[in-house]
Amino acid sequence: MGMLSRDVLADPVALTRALVDIESVSGNEADIADQVQHALSGTALKVERFGHTIVARTELGRPERVVLAGHLDTVPLNDNWPSRTEGNLLHGCGTSDMKSGTAIALHLAVTEPEPRHDVTYVFYECEEVDSARNGLKILADGRPGLLTDASFALLLEPTHGLVEAGCQGTLRVLARTWGRRAHSARSWLGDNAIHKAAPILQRLLGYEPRTVIIDGCEFREGLNAVRVSGGVAGNVIPDECVVEVNFRFAPDRSEEQAAAHVRDVLAGFELEVVDSAPAALPGLDAPPAREFLAAIGRPPRAKLGWTDVARFAALGIPGLNYGPGDPNLAHKQDEHVEIDKIVEGADVVRRWLTTGP
Amino acid sequence: MGMLSRDVLADPVALTRALVDIESVSGNEADIADQVQHALSGTALKVERFGHTIVARTELGRPERVVLAGHLDTVPLNDNWPSRTEGNLLHGCGTSDMKSGTAIALHLAVTEPEPRHDVTYVFYECEEVDSARNGLKILADGRPGLLTDASFALLLEPTHGLVEAGCQGTLRVLARTWGRRAHSARSWLGDNAIHKAAPILQRLLGYEPRTVIIDGCEFREGLNAVRVSGGVAGNVIPDECVVEVNFRFAPDRSEEQAAAHVRDVLAGFELEVVDSAPAALPGLDAPPAREFLAAIGRPPRAKLGWTDVARFAALGIPGLNYGPGDPNLAHKQDEHVEIDKIVEGADVVRRWLTTGP
């Protein structure tokens, strides 16, 4: 305990470094959650803990409430821990995704007692693993009232200092073909399931994905085979082949419409939906969103990926992604963050939370 | 030692049962080879041993020499050992493939001192595993002279009492496609290797295999994907896909011609030949082959599969497959052989070896 001193909490760069140096690969968030909880316990915020997820709320009676959210976990270390500073770059696992963003939220929670809007800070566990373990999902399922009184959510996932609005949905489908085994020396006695998968790949190869403009944000879709497998042995006609297909879809489609589209494209094949998560519309009309965009001063772009803003959208809370990290460095061995992007991010978010329009 | 008593050796059915009950899964042939060697040591045959492969030759000065060959090993036990007799059926691992055939050869080696042709008996190890360990291949490579003075070979592999002539060749080829990884949310940054495999499967699906008649035997070919694999993760555009293709070809093609044909069919793709074995022509013109067919009294059919007759063919020795086992029961849990087929097989082969045309 106590790594997060008052001095460290007052400096979002030092705080990023300190959070990175508390190892918190998904499933191992106990220590970092303890330290975040301890740092928040000295404030006027109302703090509650669920597993290793911490919720801290101002209770200032403001007419509007916003969420600032960041996850505490990282992907597994990859010989890139602890942190290391090199000029303007802070290197290490979690620097971009997303301890620099989480540090901005924690820094403001501790140092900004009088925001214009009430704020619900959420520091949550297990974002990088199975959806069922996701701390924000568990909170949204179990105690939605702690979130639903907000009219806007800012998720500090890496966007490299830009505003990324909404997010794509994602759907994974298994397309299966069946045949009959036989010795390959007498192949006419069998029925080749791998050959039968040819039209599946052919349709995916010829598929023309849409680009959809929503609220000025360009969402590109994609329908791709991500895995294929089939076969028994080098001398056996295969009786089963599975093509795993991932559809990334724009937020003008619901999950059901996305699944129906994949069923259209792959009509005639046995399909099984194995994973589905909704898209989120950009949600730029909410007043706090407009204020935030004004504070940034640059137009938003579409989030091309899936993030937890979709969980907020599902609760009826419009959300934006904004963080100092570069999303292209997330999960990479050479993950790093630009220090001046952290400073700029903390300034922008504080200005939004304190200065009137 | 000593399980193979004089009484057992005099009865091909009892001998089949005894050989089955000496467990000899490939790699574990020491015991069965010892017992076969011991059984042969009491005869006038010239016996030599190479690993667990036994060669026993008559030296009668006959103008013509024939080979009788059978392998000693079996595929792994599958809760089907030791043997069990049920009416006309002898059940157990190796009953069909091919201890019933090997028993006929060993029975004749011990009980038939005066065949019309000189005979080279070959009892060999490791037929059911990698070609490099095959006892007949090792013998053909290291001491070909022990085989090449024969003008005909009879391989007692299971044919259910029919004569199966020649054999198909077999070729295995990997067809690879390459792409570029990217996050599936931004698939346009990548290049999908699985989609690129569509034309490979499409061409295999549309392929029309030949049927070729050679010496009255109908050889059917087949070109099949036997395995397909590709993919990195559920959210990554795959950068590699591999389709493993097996070509079973008629003996009017050489291995080189077979490979060239596959290159034609899959033109434009990266191909790697990983396994190749030549076909064998029926070879029905050799006088001992004609005599054998006359002894059987039924027309031959093509061997649809690969057998070691191709190794004899490669040494310039025409060969036929003939054995009591049912080839469709080989490698199956319920493997068995019909007892009267063993008796009939031993009679036919003895008649051929002793009675003039």
UniProtKB/TrEMBL annotation, chains A, B:
Class of this enzyme: hydrolase
Entry EC number(s): 3.5.1.18
Cofactor: Co(2+); Zn(2+)
Superkingdom, natural source: Bacteria
Any one Pfam family match given in the protein's UniProt record, by short name: M20_dimer
Catalytic activity: N-succinyl-(2S,6S)-2,6-diaminopimelate + H2O = (2S,6S)-2,6-diaminopimelate + succinate
Peptidase M20 dimerisation domain mapped to chain residues: 179-267
Quaternary structure, from the entry: Homodimer.
Protein name: Succinyl-diaminopimelate desuccinylase
Lineage: Bacteria, Bacillati, Actinomycetota, Actinomycetes, Micromonosporales
Gene this chain is encoded by: dapE
